[in-house]
Amino acid sequence: MGRLRIADVAERAGVGIATVDRVLNRRAPVRDETMQKVLAAAEALGYHNTSLLRRRMEETRPPKRLGVLLQRRSEPFYQGFAGLLTQAARSGRARMRIEFCPDLAPATVSDRITDLAEGCDVIAVVAADHPRISATVEALATRMPVFTLLSDLGTQARTAFFGVDHRKAGRLAAWSIARLARRPGPVVVMVGSHRYLGHEETEIAFAEFFRQSAPDFEVLPPIVSLEDAHMAKEGVLDLLGRRPDLAGIYIACSGFSGAIAALREQAEPGRAITISNELTIETRAGLESGVLDVVLGTPIDQIAHDLIGWMTGSRPESEPARRNLYPITMHVVENI
Q1: pTM of the model
Q2: Which tops the pLDDT comparison, 60 or 178?
Q3: N or C end of the chain: which has fewer CB within 10 A?
Q4: Which of 176, 247, 233, 236 has its CA nearest to residue 205?
């Protein structure tokens, strides 16, 4: 069989040759429905200019309106993530709207998600799991894709999740403490809220590792910070006052600036092996000063790129996996 021609695509699509030419060369407007027929015909035939047809379709469509809800604006991690999402959306010819939630109250988060969805074609959210939030997502999912970021939700209505495997994060942090600690002793994990499914998975896996592989360590009840730096600082100072023999702590949430400040104030810096999440200016300084021993990172640059690809529909060849899990990066003072 010879090289496919425009005429073959036109015949398969049930349109005229001039219509296919207009799509390829943008000589005149073509209805979206007709463009879809032409693209489907080209893909079915294996036409050599199929990628150009797809690109022409994207160029003529209005930009997708994307919305993302992140948590506290004051956190450097979320500021950095917002910048990466905005940059990826700009590259994908999309209009991006990013909102930050001031607190974790389910009513507040639910209202913010609803407000964000107005005027958007697709949204993504970082949120704790709660019946009210899930109900909001389920209602919105009937008319638009809804993605979850960093911590998943219990509802099956969400389109897909993008983040790390929190069980692996919990076990990796526990393994690091067990290997680096000077001696067995009390260990603890700090979470933002037990409503975050990611934090719940982290806490369970953290304790599970010590129970299975390092039973000489004592796992203390978790510290809950509500993602607030002041609460994180007070929680760590209180714990250090009660358990000066602390062997290790894993700060698995935002608000780690407060926890780091508390660790700097303790009488003997470095006594407890300290693991934190996300490489930011603050955690980098913590590694350099010796307050932090290990930082576990989320590849937010790759997540931003992939998420925007799915949100804009620029990956039409397949559907995203229900759970898109990314490898955890591990940073110590020698590799930053």
Answers
A1: 0.82
A2: 178
A3: N
A4: 176
